[in-house]
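Please check both lines for our workbook:

___
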Amino acid sequence: MWRSALVLYQLLALCRPLWAQDDVTAAAITPQDCSLDCIRQGGPGCEYCRITRSDVRKALGFNSIEAFGSCIPWPCFELLGEENPEICRHYVQAPNDVTVESLHEPNPTSDTIVVSWKPSYYGIAFLRGFQVSLQALGGSTIACQLLLFRRNLSLPASHAQRVYKSDPFPGLSLGSQYAVTVMALPVPEEWERFYNSKIFSTRSCAEKNGLEQCKKDWYPKHIEVKQEGTAITVTFNLAPPNLGIRSYFSLCYANGMTKYTDITFNSTINKTHHSYQLNDLQEGTNYTCEIAANEVDAVRKTFSVQVVRTQKEGASLLSVTASLALMLPLCLAVVAMLVVLVAALTRRKSKLQMKKLDMKPGIIKQHRESGTQEEVVSLSRSKLTPPRLLICYSSYDCPAHVKAVMQLGAFIQQHMGTQVCLDLWDSLSVAEEGSMAWHCRQIRECDFVLVICSRGLNHGPEPPEPEGDDEDEEADTGLDFGSKAFRFNAAVHLIGEEVGRAKARAQDLSKYMAAIFEYSEEADIPTELRLVSHYTLTVDLPLLFSHLHGVALHRPGGYLKVTHISEEGFAKLPAGAALQWAIYEAGIAMRAKRHHSG
């Protein structure tokens, strides 16, 4: 009996850690409201606390940057390491399992998300908190949250299965891409894996509010096609009246031809369905058609139309008169004789001309038979990862130029199969490593380096304006990380040295490229970059794509066709239209600046 009791006791003892672990992972841990003094003193109610801008101002004596919320560089040392700096110098690895979850948001035009993650068990005993930042893909940081543990809290390795959550991030644009970064604190001085980033997309309008509430995302769901003789009738369901859609259009494609149909309707006759006619379609042809609301970037519904050949009535044959029936064979015989005579004369004349010019007709026939059709060249999918591209630029010209550079990076990353590295998208690493060290590492690790040349690249920085005392001015000027002169000119000189060294050693220069926007000039390209390939954007987007992926634009019998990067097609994409508009605004600003300086 006592042996059975002993075995039962040992089993209970072994299961106790498992129960404890189940308790740990039972529910996610959300931030608490607690003061910074409670965190520093290690109070019992300060296990996981949110830090506000007022806490940072109270601790440091100044406001944090507006765009960075309560986050500051090296928060552990500044907020917890005054009395004992040792607690902020230990090794802590990046968090795991970063996930993004959408929350209920009453505003139909925006989305709200919350971020969750698990801490790594490497260095978890020295973990002091987390820093969560959010930025729009192609833009700057828009929100940042600082979450700290109390001073004397030490987590065991079993708590690595805990799920920690951030506060909600509200007001995000629908159908947009963002990048969220979760950083473990303290940040070690010589360690790269202390943060984990994730790119995600917010819900579309249709996903959040339903298709019937979204003007841009709405499309007809029910389409019916009927053929009566040569007439094709298409019936589709209309959009709800609350969307305010007043017209539609239809496009049909077949054999290289396009048929456009403008669709208007009378809402007083029928508010649910409408029918329209497709005319002038070829018999015996299969068409692929699209129908959509006549709105910008409206979603198109695709359907097929098969035009069946119609049988002609036999009555028309019986209506031929007897005289016409007798004359028809005679007319056909005369026409056949004339055709044979003309063909013989033409052939004899052609042979005489070829003989006179000493030409061989067999060669022309062989050329006609061997004529090859153009084929589409597909990209090789052997590469497991896309090429990495570092974009360097000058911010001396104007903010509109910087915006054009950001839109270019977003377009290349979304539609040209390339991973873009831009200092504006990696502000945490730039602040941690320093601008020059960050650029040196990216130049060394990236597959390609693209320098956006402009007038300000060859000129020194303008004298800084005197700083004001207003908090808004402090927030705006705080977005400048370090000396711009040191950042951009030094990086360009470093790239120029690498190009000169590679040229002297007869090495490949394809890693480095220079480009200008349409408002800049060839003279804006520095002398040290004249040796590398240079492009004018956006006209040379196909050439840039060919350079990045190592494919030829043309070859005998083939051509590279990427519709969304052609000179006509890139502006049809949202990212391409944003890039085109940003270049237009930057051109206006640059011309105004030149006129003012002149």
Q: What stands out?
A: The first strand starts at residue 49 and ends at 51.
